[in-house]
Amino acid sequence: MEYKIYINGKIFNEDEAKISVLDRGVICGDSIYEVFRSYDGRRIFLLDEHLERLKTSALYLRFNLPNTLEYIKDELERCVQEAGFKKTYIRLIITRGIGDINLDFTDAKRPSMIIIMKEFHPFPDEYYRNGIDLKIVSIRRNPIDSFNPGAKSGNYLNSALAYNEAKTSGFHDALLLNHQNFCTESSTSNFFFVQGDTLYTPSLDMGILSGITRNFIIRLAHDTKIPVQEGAFTRQDLSNADECFISSTLKEIMPVKSIDHEKEFLEIPGIVTRKLQDTFRNTVKKYYEGR
Ligand SMILES: Cc1ncc(COP(=O)(O)O)c(C=O)c1O
Question: For ligand 1, what atom is nearest to the CA of residue 212?
Answer without folding.
Answer: 10
